[in-house]
């Protein structure tokens, strides 16, 4: 019987790369996100790239609890269960701390933290009844460090890593493991302008490899955590950042 995965934010970037990796291993994949047109494009693309892929889509805002429950229910209805939940929800709008207000704060916290929490709660209930499962949450290098105009994003991503640890503690008795991945700069839509305009000199400042990562490099790690990692790997945040958090600033 095939395993079933829900990939929140599966229409683009790291989410799509993760879905493609899992589908390539025979996992039935539900793609969810707020933009139905992106999900339909991803569904078509995945069907072309992975022969025999079992894929479905469910549009909705996972930062809304009712939508999150509906997305999880749709996954179970489509494929008969849920074994793996990959959550890539997140957004970033640069805001100086002195300009931070309720609108700016909530515009990031909701899509970056709430959108991870609500599907995870709903999915965990299904997994507990099923006898186990695995969570992979996408955090960020901004969880332990920060940069200008990112207080809200850094706070949200730090909470995502903390959430993975707390989930691991509470859900171990249900045979459910939870881990997070902290990417560095990855060539996705969220950082597209920077990547397209970056000079070799600026790339050298990013990390010890002097380049941005590719979504498939993150998908590789998601595949490992979702399918192959030992159960003893639990409650961790794995940094996939080209060595960004390992190096001292260049002077």
For this entry, give a set of tags:
single chain; 251 residues; alpha/beta
Based on CA inertia axes, which overall geometry fits? globular
Number of helical stretches of at least 4 residues? 8
Oligomer: single chain
Largest sheet: 7 strands, parallel
DSSP E strands, number: 7
Radius of gyration, rounded?
Answer: 17 Å
- Taking pLDDT < 50 over at least 5 consecutive residues as the criterion, the unreliable ranges are none
Structural class: alpha/beta
Q: What distance separates the N and C termini?
A: 55 Å
Give the proportion of residues in helices: 40-55%
Rounded mean pLDDT is 95
Task: Indicate the proportion of strand residues.
Answer: 15-25%
Give the SSE string.
EHEHEHEHEHEHHHE
In the sheet with the most strands, the strands line up as 3-2-1-4-5-6-7
Could you characterize what this model shows?
With about 250 residues, this protein is of the alpha/beta class. Helix content is about 45%, strand content about 15%. It has a seven-stranded parallel beta sheet, sandwiched between helices. Helix 4 links the parallel strand 4 and strand 5.
What's the structural blueprint in terms of helices and strands?
Blueprint: E1 4-8, H1 13-24, E2 28-33, H2 36-49, E3 55-59, H3 65-79, E4 84-87, H4 102-130, E5 133-138, H5 151-171, E6 176-183, H6 192-197, H7 200-206, H8 215-228, E7 237-240
Parallel strand pairs: 1-2, 1-4, 2-3, 4-5, 5-6, 6-7
Helix pairs in contact: 1-8, 3-4, 4-5
């Amino acid at each position: 019987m095939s395993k079933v995965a829900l990939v929140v934010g599966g229409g683009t970037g790291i989410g799509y790369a993760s879905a493609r990796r899992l589908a390539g291993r025979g996992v039935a994949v539900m793609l969810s996100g707020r933009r139905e047109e992106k999900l339909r494009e991803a569904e078509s693309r995945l069907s072309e790239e992975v022969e025999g892929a079992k894929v479905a889509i469910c549009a909705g805002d996972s930062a809304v609890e009712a939508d999150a429950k509906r997305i999880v229910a749709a996954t179970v209805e489509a494929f008969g269960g849920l074994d793996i939940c990959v959550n890539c929800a997140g957004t970033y709008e640069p805001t100086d701390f002195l300009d931070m207000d309720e609108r700016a704060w909530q515009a990031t916290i909701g899509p970056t933290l709430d959108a991870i929490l609500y599907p995870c709660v709903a999915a965990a209930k299904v997994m507990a009844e099923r006898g186990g499962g695995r969570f992979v949450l996408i955090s960020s290098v901004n969880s332990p460090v920060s940069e200008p105009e990112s207080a809200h994003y850094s706070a949200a991503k730090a909470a995502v890593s903390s959430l993975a640890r707390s989930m691991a503690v509470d859900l171990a008795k249900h045979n459910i493991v939870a881990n997070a991945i902290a990417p560095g700069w990855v060539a996705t839509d969220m950082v597209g302008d920077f990547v397209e305009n970056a000079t070799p000199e600026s790339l050298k400042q990013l990390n010890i490899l002097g380049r941005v990562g590719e979504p498939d490099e993150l998908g590789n790690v998601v595949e490992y955590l979702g399918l192959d990692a030992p159960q003893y790997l639990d409650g961790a945040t794995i940094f996939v950042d080209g060595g960004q958090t390992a190096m001292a600033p260049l002077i």
